[in-house]
Fold this protein.
Amino acid sequence: MFLGDGGEFLIGLEDERWDPVMLIRQSSAQSFLAFSSHQEYQAGIGHRTAAIEDSRLLPMAELTITN
């Protein structure tokens, strides 16, 4: 859904900086867990782990705003 470049925080820790940011929509938490435990994904997880210094995973639920 979104891939962007990070930078300095407007609000946050002064010494924390983010590089790439990716937003992915999953149909449910169960769908994400099924994907992340898939054998082919697990086979390549070492590359992902080696490529990043730190990461965050923040599950969210979409809000519906009505007038």
User: Anything to note?
Assistant: The chain is about 30% helix and 10% strand. The two ends are 26 Å apart (CA to CA). Strands lie at 2-5, 20-23. Residues 8 and 17 are 6 Å apart (CA to CA).
